[in-house]
Amino acid sequence: MPRTEPIKAVRGVRDVLPRDRAAWRAVERSASHTAKRFGYQEIVTPIIEREELIERVGSDTDAVAKELYRFEDRGGRKLALRPEATAGIVRAYFEGGLNQGPQPARLYLLGPMFRYDRPQKGRYRQFFQFDIEAIGSPSPAVDAEVIEIGQGWLRAVGIRETDLQLNSIGDAKCRPAYLERLRAYYRPLKDQLHGDCQRRLETNPLRLLDCKVPQCQPFKEKAPRITDHLCDECAAAWASVRRLLEAAGVGYVLNPYLVRGLDYYTRTVFEFYPAGAAGQQDALCSGGRYDGLAEAEGWPSTPGVGFAGGIDRVVEVIVAGGQEVIAAPAAEVVVLADAGLEVEAAEVARICRQARSTVADYEPRSLRAKMRSADKVGALFVVLLSADDAAARKCQLRHMATGEQQSVSWTELPERLA
Ligand code: HAM
Question: What's the whole-model pTM score?
Answer without folding.
Answer: 0.88
